Amino acid sequence: MKKRMKKAVSLALAAAMVLSLAACGNGGGSKEGTSQAVAESGAASDGEVTLKFCWWGGDSRHEATEKAVEAFMVKYPNIKVECEYGAWTGWEEKQSLAIQGGNAADVMQINWNWITSYSGNGTNFANLEDYSEILDLAQFDQGSLEQCKADGKLMAVPVAMTGRLFYWNKTTFDEVGCDIPVDEASLLEAGAKFKAFNEGYYPLAMMEYDRAIFMVYYLESVYGKPWVENGELQYTAEEIQSAMDFMTKLEEAHVIPTIATLQGDMADSLDKNAKVINGQYAGVFEWDSAVTKVQKAIVESTDKPGQELVIGDFIKFGDYNGGFTKISMALAVSANSAHPKEAAMLINYLLNDEEGIEICGTERGIPCSAQGMAVLKDKGIGDALVMEANEKVLGYSKFPLDPMFEHNDLKANPDGVYYKVFGKLSAGDISSAKAAEDLMKGIDDCYNY
């Protein structure tokens, strides 16, 4: 499979997507001299400057980022920042059209794979190396910076590295009288115990995209091969079919609810699902950088407050350490920004300035910035669960992630290949062999279109 750029997402699809829009109110790098250089750059700006900054995430990320932006505007009163943010659903479709149409925000939180999908081979985002006197790139590992380049140009700065882990509602597991799963046998046993306790209780819940990532974790655990390497799928139809059979087995064993059951819950994401919030669905397979929204939801549950969410062991399905890590997200500047210097200043403030680091904490994961990590450690800042999870996943999961794995044609909800395949498999509309065939065809089409 040769990698090529996909066409832009259709206008009709994006028009149906709804975003939250909010305006933020007004309100030092470890290399010596960086903060001073940034301050001087800000002071040298000519007149009033307005930037637009957009990101996705949960409520806690929104709140922290707004506070950081307000503090930035206090520090640089000639720069006004307008903030646009929302949940993930529909976000990529909207932003991809903005990028392709030349209307992107000045500063954008992007997924790492957007560099492959939407940078126009180095033309749609500004080359941040051009602003290295403002944005302290020395704080970032050179290897992570290389992963953010297209056509030799630095399209974005990495914010954090991340991977997926199993998190369990210990309160529910204790209530059911069940041990937290550590391998296939105990996972299946949990399904039986939860069913006996209450038909509406499940030890684990996974939506369609979660299942795609879980499937890769399962296959890598069993076979010890990366999912894709050098643009080539490394698994046979028979191997992928075995993973599809396992997904069906988990549903039949009452380990996970069907997709139809989850859709019937009328929630866009698991952290907003009342059955997760109240402990009926007692496990999630989530990014370390995103789990705080789940933790906050169950702790603050109206019906069952104070529940405890814990990090589980990596479930053993074979002899290998399955799972991948990736740059969780990055910050980029639009190539069409009228104020790229000030945009770079905002990025530097969020990632390398002590004040910005303190305010943002671990809301975007554990920082790639050396200065960011140093400030968090020195001041004891950051969510303990996120920090523990990040250390655990980076120490365990060693497989690489191919950027096309997250291409919108594969993971978009509801028309992406992952959603169609796992939805039909769960509904019994296709066999495991057909699911494997459709998945492989969808991946091939994505890579070779």
From TrEMBL:
<dbReference type="Pfam" id="PF13416">
    <property type="entry name" value="SBP_bac_8"/>
</dbReference>
<protein>
    <submittedName>
        <fullName>Oligogalacturonide transport system substrate-binding protein</fullName>
    </submittedName>
</protein>
<feature type="signal peptide">
    <location>
        <begin position="1"/>
        <end position="22"/>
    </location>
</feature>
<dbReference type="InterPro" id="IPR050490">
    <property type="entry name" value="Bact_solute-bd_prot1"/>
</dbReference>
<dbReference type="InterPro" id="IPR006059">
    <property type="entry name" value="SBP"/>
</dbReference>
<keyword id="KW-0732">Signal</keyword>
